[in-house]
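Input chain follows. Return structure tokens only.
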Amino acid sequence: MHERLVVDRRAQRRGWYAAAACLLLAIAGWWPRLAHLASDAAHGISPLQADAERGRQYLLKSGGAHVGRWSWAHESGLAADVRGEVVWDGERQEGYLTLSGLEPNAPAGRQYQLWIFDAARDDRYPVDGGVFDVPAHSQSMTVPIRPALRVSQPVAFAVTLEPVGGVVVSDRSHLMALARAGGN
């Protein structure tokens, strides 16, 4: 009888050791991620912004010749202070906007919407690239591009101000920013 208790205690200890080892592995695996989050928070960057910027940097490093870069144009009728660029990889159908100079939109009940003009499509119906917000006190931001359809040959990227949730087809009356291919 005494021998059975010893075996059970040893089994219990092995279980606790295994649990402790799993906890240490989990902490070791998450530690770099937690360090990034702490660093980003110390610099006033939200976790989503930090992830978007890391995705953009990775795309620039790994994309090679497939990656195109377009600067925001400074044309009449557009917001004069908009700076940044569009980075797009047509093979991966992935990209990012970097923007500074757009007015915050949250209090107005409207959202910014990205449009991708594709040479293979009618200009009246650009591809929806997603909606996004510019929060108050935002100096600059990185926004992932989420195309609703495949884009074969982008010739321009435009940002409009639309009702919350975006629209299917923009009348482009509130065109805020434009980046044309070859406009660098």
